[in-house]
Structure formats: C-alpha cells, structure tokens
Write a structure and sequence with these properties.
- It is a single chain.
- The protein is of the alpha+beta class.
- It has a single domain (2-161), classed as 3-Layer(aba) Sandwich (Aminopeptidase), CATH 3.40.630.30.
- It is 31% helix and 36% strand.
- It has 4 helices and 7 strands.
- Strands 1-2-3-4-5-7-6 form a 7-stranded mixed beta sheet.
- The longest helix is centred in the middle third of the chain and has 18 residues, at 91-108.
Length: 162
C-alpha cells in the first residue's frame, strides 16, 4: 500500500473516485473540469494524492495551502474519497495521515510550518464528521452553518490549530 502524489495522467481515475463517492449528481466530465479549475495537476500550493493498493488506485484526496504568512501556513484538506469496497477499513485515515506527513515534510524543507488545518463536510454526513473528528484529534473547533444548500442541510467546518 502506497500513498503518493497523483500523476497528471491519473485525472480520469481520480475524478471518477471523487465523483462516485462525493458528487454522484454531476458528470465525470464536469468533475474533471472542476478538478482542473481548482489546481490540477499538483503544484506546491495544491497537492493531490492517491492511495494505491496492489497497483490499483483505491483512494484520492487534495491538500491546499489556503493561506500563507511568511513561514506559517493554513492548510485545507478536501475531497478525500475511497472506492466502494475499501471503505470502513482504515484506508481513508491512512491516506489522510500519510499525505499530511508528505505535505508537512515538503513545507518543512522550505522553512515553513503548518499552523492550522481545516476542512468541511455536511453535518448529515455522519461518517465524514466522525472521520474528521478522529483524524484531527483533540482541541478541535467545529463551526456549523445552518441551511447551507437547502432547508435542513448544515455544513460543519472543522479547524485544528497545530
């Protein structure tokens, strides 16, 4: 099992995983365009990762430098998705932790330090909320936004100072 940077030619595979697991209401073409629009392929400020098991990509995610002040960084974790059949087995957490280590090492080698990590998900997505609470650990700040997309739909922002 390996967590590594996504390769430019893997856009279609990554878009399919993210679309299937997070945004099934949009087409694969729309998902690919969206990914390109928010920073594809990887660059220092938007880093895409995959989890590969026995030669197959089973998960993907993105880390973005949301803000930078000198040597201090704010990172956003987003779009973590693991293929059906591999969920609830620790693969997502492994992908999140290993990719975070790679991002930390990358920025540390450039004299920078991560000061804050944040992410968001729908409050109704209990699996994602539980995942982020575990991944981010103690002293987590949660902010809820009511009725974000429609009545009864709430977004939770998770913040963790490092």
């Amino acid at each position: 099992m390996e967590v590594r940077y996504a390769r430019p030619e893997e856009l279609n595979v990554i878009a399919k995983i993210i679309r299937d697991q997070i945004y099934p209401e949009i087409s694969l073409e729309e998902m690919e365009e969206w990914i390109k629009g928010i920073g594809w392929p990887s660059n220092p400020y938007v880093q895409w990762f995959v989890l590969e098991k026995e030669g197959e990509i089973i998960g993907a995610m993105r880390w973005e430098v949301y803000d930078r002040y000198g040597e201090k960084l704010v990172l956003m974790s987003s779009w973590i998705a693991v293929r059906e059949g591999y969920q609830k087995q620790g693969y997502g957490r492994y992908l999140w932790q290993k990719s975070k280590e790679i991002v930390d090492d990358y920025w540390k080698s450039r004299g920078c330090k991560v000061k804050l990590i944040f992410t968001e998900t729908e409050e109704e997505n209990l699996r994602a909320c539980t995942f982020y609470r575990r991944a981010l650990g103690n002293n987590l700040i949660e902010v809820r936004m009511q009725n974000t997309w429609h009545l009864g739909n709430n977004i939770v922002w998770f913040f963790k100072e490092i």
